[in-house]
Amino acid sequence: MVKYTIAVLPGDGIGSEIVPPAVNILKKIGIKYDIAFEFKEALIGGAALDAVGVPLPEDTLKVCHQSDAVLLGAIGGPKWDTLPTHLRPEVGALLPLRKDLALYANIRPVILYPELVSASTLKEEVVSGTDLVVIRELTGGLYFGEKKREKTATGERAVDTLVYTTEEIERIARLAFETARGRRKKLTSVDKANVLESGRLWRETLSRLAAAYPDVELEHMYVDNCAMQLVRAPKQFDVIVTENTFGDILTDQASMISGSIGMLPSASIGGQVGLYEPSHGSAPDIAGQDKANPLATILSAAMMLEYSFKQVQAAEDIKQAVASVLNKGYRTGDLVQEGKMVVGTQEMGNLVAGEIV
Ligand SMILES: NC(=O)C1=CN([C@@H]2O[C@H](COP(=O)(O)OP(=O)(O)OC[C@H]3O[C@@H](n4cnc5c(N)ncnc54)[C@H](O)[C@@H]3O)[C@@H](O)[C@H]2O)C=CC1
Ligand SMILES: CC(C)CC(=O)C(=O)O
Ligand SMILES: [Mg+2]
């Protein structure tokens, strides 16, 4: 029997509602495939600030490093928004955790389940059949550059910096080329090279590496155009690779192709220990109400099985279980479609678990 330890970090808001269903499904997968999962829960974000005064406790980092993978809910919320920047859950916990685990690549597949075509805000003929993946650089760029605030004679001056090195661009580009190679062989590199120096280096680096991947078609696109193209004709995309902030924004937008941000999973990889989390945040507006869609987190657990544990069939089982539940007509509130049955977070989790036999 194989054994894996999973660090479980529910975090804030809906985090404590969407993570337990994913853990429960992993337990069922463990029974079916003879995998012994050990789950070690740890504090992060506002929950950690409230309990021990820091957003990313040393103990949590230790648990993550000593595990084979990390399952994260979401962090942040209004209660902690006014703290100094370095203490905020987002800047004080999530970014340093990603950096500490050397997770330079964030993979966000945007797949529209056929059952959810009418849940998308976009027209059926535009979105039907969409299957693209965004590869977002995760430990560099605007989120990690130097920040400062200074007093001026009339007010204040705030600075954020966007820095990339050739090496940082090369490693994410290679992963993107390799990913495209295993799919429909089209790579769209998204930048703002018409304005940003970092964008020029990004574009030059991608163009140079393209010679090693003659079977992959590389196109360059400015990020503003990409935002438009994603809603105009999403099926033109296969793999998109882009800067940290651009990828963050474009994937929230792209989530609506799949019906809801509650459908968009993610895998963060690159280091020894992969981290798996939904693409959305802690959704304070619906927290504690059993309304959140747990499917993005459940599908992130499937990505964990695939990327960290190479349990491809087990991952496929989870995706099939999700498809089956959707096919039977069950929806959480974010996916309301005429004639469908609306269920809460827990029930949706139980329904998916019930499909794994
Ligand atoms: N990885 C993380 O932990 C992230 C944390 N955040 C943090 O989350 C907090 C809230 O941020 P927002 O901008 O409101 O983004 P959000 O993604 O939490 O919510 C945006 C909207 O989508 C809805 N939504 C999100 N996930 C859902 C789900 N699973 N099911 C149904 N509806 C869902 C929410 O109810 C809300 O109306 C902030 O503190 C933010 O910094 C935001 C993004 C990522
Ligand atoms: C909260 C941010 C640091 C990150 C974010 O929005 C994301 O990773 O999707
Ligand atoms: Mg985001």
Automatic annotation (TrEMBL):
NAD(+) binds at residues 77-90, 281-293. One of its GO terms (molecular function) is 3-isopropylmalate dehydrogenase activity. Keywords: Amino-acid biosynthesis, Branched-chain amino acid biosynthesis, Cytoplasm, Leucine biosynthesis, Magnesium, Manganese, Metal-binding, NAD, Oxidoreductase. One of its GO terms (cellular component) is cytosol. It is found in: Cytoplasm. GO terms for biological process: L-leucine biosynthetic process. The record marks Y143, K192 as: Important for catalysis. Belongs to the isocitrate and isopropylmalate dehydrogenases family. LeuB type 1 subfamily. Homodimer. This is 3-isopropylmalate dehydrogenase. It comes from Formimonas warabiya. The lineage of its organism: Bacteria, Bacillati, Bacillota, Clostridia, Eubacteriales. The gene is leuB.
